[in-house]
Design a protein that fits this description.
Elements lengths: L1 E3 L9 E3 L12 H16 L4 H14 L6 E3 L6 E4 L2 H8 L3 H7 L2 E4 L2 E4 L1 H14 L1 H21 L1 E3 L7 E3 L1 H23 L1 H33 L3 H13 L34
Antiparallel strand pairs: 1-2, 3-4, 4-6, 5-6, 7-8
Length: 272
């Protein structure tokens, strides 16, 4: 095909160009230019490497693939939402307000949000599912603690897994893992993090005291007081405070027939 350049440094020149190099016919060039301009706006509304890692973690953990997914092309970490109404209904997220804040474009495949929009969606998912996210953070930190003490393994892109030292894992934790986990905590909110940490601390303390009571009961039984040991063990089980009995229950009033009656009889003492 012959292409004539109308402006720029090559204005007035005519060149022979293979047809496969032309993206669209000339009749569709305005639509194509508008789409490229929209994608360019999405590209400039980008996020950092740590933020993209956090988006990936949240999407894998909380976002069903049929509702939305992160795109790799033409804009890396843009979010494709094929059905915005279904997405808003199923997730309960304020999609309309997010769309107003970030660069976006629509086409025959649905709505495409900029990488910054992906980050806002991930942050909203964290606020709506704090327990799942914070449990994931705790799990990742336990893995990181083990690796920082014993070393681990690292697999480069397209390469074989190679062993790593504890020092290497510690440096990786400082540069990559910890910023990611702290960002996830930030998205969950300070209050959610505090409540989660208090809950974990309370559960750990209950487990510690449960083990301590078991050891004390065994000690009492070992010293020969079997009856007292069984009493302590039964009270420890029967009087446990659990999620099933911690809530205050409001019961109906008793009918007169259900009220227990106490009758007292008095008599004169018999003196002998």
């Amino acid at each position: 095909m012959e292409v004539e350049f109308l402006d720029g440094a090559d204005a007035g020149q005519v060149r022979n160009v293979p047809g496969r190099r032309l993206r669209v016919p000339w009749s569709q060039v305005e639509t194509f230019d508008a789409r490229m301009a929209a994608l360019d706006r999405l590209e400039h509304d980008g996020i950092t490497e740590v933020e993209s890692s956090a988006v990936e973690a949240v999407y894998n953990l909380l976002l069903p693939a049929e509702l939305a997914w992160a795109e790799w092309t033409p804009v890396h970490w843009a979010t494709r939402i094929p059905d915005p109404e279904r997405f808003a209904d199923d997730t309960g997220l304020p999609l309309a307000s997010i769309v107003q804040e970030v660069a976006n474009t629509s086409d025959e495949d649905g709505l495409l949000l900029s990488p910054h929009g992906s980050m806002l969606i991930a942050a909203a998912l964290c606020r709506a599912n704090t327990e799942a996210v914070l449990s994931h953070v705790d799990s990742e930190e336990r893995v990181a603690r083990h690796k920082c003490a014993n070393g681990g393994a690292f697999r480069p892109s397209g390469g074989r897994s190679e062993p790593t030292s504890a020092q290497w894992e510690w440096q990786w934790y400082l540069e990559s893992t910890r910023p990611l986990l702290e960002l996830l905590r930030e998205w969950c909110g300070h209050r959610a993090v505090t409540v989660h940490e208090r809950l974990v601390a309370a559960e750990s303390e209950v487990a510690r005291l449960d083990e301590l009571v078991s050891r004390l009961v065994d000690t009492v039984r070992t010293h020969g007081d079997e009856l007292l040991a069984e009493t302590f063990a039964r009270e420890h089980i029967d009087e446990q405070v659990t999620p099933y009995n911690v809530r205050t229950l409001v019961e109906r009033p008793l009918s007169p027939a259900e009220i227990p009656v106490s009758v007292e009889y008095r008599r004169r003492p018999r003196w002998s």
